[in-house]
Amino acid sequence: MFPRILLSISLSIFCTLVSAKSILVNQAELEYEIKGVGENIVLFEAGAISGMSGWDAIWDKLPENTTAIRYSRRGEGKSSSCIGDLTSKDYVRDAEELIHLLKINKPIIYVSHSYGGKIAREFGVRNQDRVTAMLFVDPINPRDVEIIEKLDPSGGKKANDKMKQDDIKMGKENNWCLINDIWDKKPSLGYGDIKNIPITLIAGVKKFENPERLFDTDKARELWGEFQSEWVLKFPKGKAVMANKSGHFVQDDEPELVISELKELIKRASES
């Protein structure tokens, strides 16, 4: 359901000025920025196409006890262009190498948004001892198509198929190497795959007065919150937070909520 907003994001990121550096990671130049010198290392993984500017709304409000790292994946922001179809496994390899090159030798707290959540999950599976906690901000959930088919039993599948075709076409036209991976609807990695660590998931469940899409109707928003909660609450240390004033970009709509939950998560991680 998310690719519809990607084009406007890709046009806007060039208007954002950040004091970024560049580093060669697996033969790609990736832009990145480090803020603070706190004891808690926090890695920020943006949503699709946003690049690291996707965290601008909270970047200057981060807790002082953090060392925050944000970066743009290949094909996003001012990083090198991408080639072909890439998956979360490809992006995880870049994240692993970035951390290695930056000489981060202690476990991290992983904060992710949207498609970045898929990367964070994959990273958590591959690096069980390198992640102490995770904060998911309205992460990608393969059950989004299930919502459409549930609310429109007769035409939902056809509508999903058309959206997929349109999104893949748009992705090819704009060289979005992750578009096919967004439409990979295999069940998300979860408890049992990822170590039992403190995890918070914030779901954007704002209800709209005059929704233009079925996915934005009240019932769809309720189901979205339910599906997101079901995933995170399987973790013994999982916590679900409903952002009732937010759409998909909770960090923009309710930045104070994201900061508050990050602070609490850091505390939970220190006590685990």
The low-pLDDT segments are 3-18
Class computed from helices, strands and strand pairing: alpha/beta
> Largest beta sheet, briefly?
8 strands, mixed
Number of domains: 1
For the largest beta sheet, what order do the strands appear in spatially?
Answer: 1-2-4-3-5-6-7-8
Bulk shape: globular
User: How would you name the CATH homologous superfamily?
Assistant: Alpha/Beta hydrolase fold, catalytic domain
Outline the fold blueprint:
Layout: H1 6-12, E1 21-25, E2 28-35, E3 40-45, H2 56-59, E4 66-71, H3 88-101, E5 108-113, H4 116-126, E6 131-137, H5 144-151, H6 156-173, H7 179-182, E7 199-204, H8 218-232, E8 238-243, H9 250-253, H10 255-271
Parallel strand pairs: 3-4, 3-5, 5-6, 6-7, 7-8
Antiparallel strand pairs: 1-2, 2-4
Helix pairs in contact: 3-4, 5-6, 5-8
